[in-house]
Amino acid sequence: MKKYALFLGCNIPARVPQYERAARAVLARLQVDVVEIRQFNCCGYPLRNTDLETALLFSALNLALAEREELDILTLCQCCFGALKQAAHLLAGDENRRQAVNAFLIKEKLKYQGTVAVTHLLSLLHREIGPDAIQETVTTPLAGLKVAAHYGCHALRPSDIMQFDDPVAPTLLESLVSLTGADSVSWEQRLECCGAPLLGVNDNLSLRLTAAKLADAAGAGAALLTVACPWCQLQFDGAVQRMEMAGRDGAALPTILYPQLLGLSMGLSRAALGLAPNDNDPLTIGGSNAK
Predict the structure, then answer these.
(1) Which of 56, 216, 222, 264 has the least C-beta neighbours within 10 A?
(2) pLDDT tens-place string over residues 103-141
(3) DSSP structure class, residue 290
(4) Buried (b) or exposed (e) across 200-218, using 16+ Cβ within 10 A?
């Protein structure tokens, strides 16, 4: 298995450290070598809709840093995944933009040439490691556990750039859930937005979207919701508290990051997977093996 440059972005180290912890534990069990490039900075996503050229510069700096080390980039955050993939796409098709970016990068003794690939953790697990290799590491299957798979928005679209899965009928995450021994439930709102982009702009609508998703997943029989995006995790994990503060009732459905779910099926400890920081900690997952 080749080595990857692990791109954590801004949100995971600051607010969802359990995602990094679980991902590193699972990747180590799968013998995937990841390294950290300390000069990595923001992916540029927050600026994309207000200053595209600056956003591209941010992304290009990260891409060039990985290129210098002759490493492809592995992302955990779907926003970072989308920002880096779209930047690479735009720069590949626009020589003037690429020259403008490199005029800045030369000050850092860098040059972006477009040779680095960007992949998301779920794609790595599903396509490059593969089901057979993953199943060999599953020692405590989560039999009987019903899980709702939430994809998030940024990994799926624009599909011609992301090349992640079918944006209308994806199956990748359900396939990965099944490898843990758990059962994926079919639920109507699985591809709907979690509501996170509206938080701080229209909190009422944000909470309505989140509550509707949780209720739909619970109504389909799910005991858990699994995600692979830090923003979605924060949105769902804090939804119950926000609903209580707003005087609203809602489904108190626990949320778990996919590498935490996979790690439990591998027999990894709750501590190794960073389960404690989840606000709505799924205490019963994996029974005694998940302590």
Answers:
(1) 216
(2) 999 999 999 999 999 999 999 999 999 999 999 999 999
(3) G
(4) eeeeeebbebbbbbbebbb
Q: At residue 11, what is the residue type?
A: N
Separation CA 291–CA 77 (nearest Å): 27
Q: What is the pLDDT of residues 161-186, one digit of tens each?
A: 999 999 999 999 999 999 999 999 99
Sequence-distant (6+) residues with CB within 8 A of 230 are 9, 11, 12, 15, 16, 19, 76, 77
- pLDDT tens for each residue of 74-91: 999 999 999 999 999 999
**43-78: burial string, b at 16+ Cβ within 10 Å, e else:** bbbebbeeeeeebbbbbbbbbbbbbbeebbbbbbbb
DSSP 212-274: HHHHHHHHTT-SEEEE--HHHHHHHHTHHHHHHHTT-------EEEHHHHHHHHTT--HHHHT
Q: Spell out the domains of the chain, with CATH numbers in brackets.
A: 4-121 (1.20.1050.140), 141-270 (3.40.50.11810)
Residue type, 67: E
Mean pLDDT for the chain? 92
Cα 285 from Cα 274, distance rounded (Å): 13
Burial of 38 (0-12, 13-18, 19+ CB in 10 A): exposed
